[in-house]
Write a structure and sequence with these properties.
about 140 residues; 3-stranded antiparallel sheet; 5 helices; 3 strands; about 40% helix; globular
């Protein structure tokens, strides 16, 4: 259990798919502040980054009904159509219900919140890829 005001360090994936946007939205809503990091090593060419989330707000988490949505995803799990799995025929996600917001609603609500998280990540990512493409195997932190 995460205590009110608590902190957590999470490794995120750089992705624009539905589940990763939902996860980022939930964390942006439930935590008061964050610090983004991405090591300048060969690891940086991979599609991950770290965020230290601080100031957990239990009340906001309750208002989002996050726990009930997650329980529903778990209890209604279908191995043929897992939650957030993509249907190859329709290109639609199966049961993407961690939150009950459309992508447009999330962007409207958070403004440039997503960009503020991703901008420093992409800056480090581009530096790392430039070095990698230039023949460097890794860079010191």
């Amino acid at each position: 259990t995460l205590n009110n005001g608590g902190s957590i360090l999470i490794r995120h994936k750089i992705a624009l798919d539905c589940i990763h946007q939902h996860i980022l939205y939930v964390f942006l809503k439930c935590f008061g502040e964050y610090q983004v990091g991405k090591p300048m090593t060969e690891f940086a060419i991979r599609k991950t980054f770290w965020i230290l989330w601080k100031g957990f707000d239990k009340q906001i988490c309750k208002e989002l009904k996050l726990v009930s949505y997650l329980r529903k995803l778990i209890h209604e799990y279908d191995g043929q159509y897992p939650p957030y799995g993509k249907n190859p025929k329709t290109q639609q996600y199966n049961n993407p219900k961690m939150i009950d917001k459309s992508p447009q609603d999330m962007v409207d609500e958070l403004g440039d919140g997503f960009l503020k998280v991703m901008d420093p990540v992409f800056e480090v990512q581009m530096k790392s890829l430039k070095s990698f493409c230039g023949g460097k195997k890794d860079r010191l932190c």
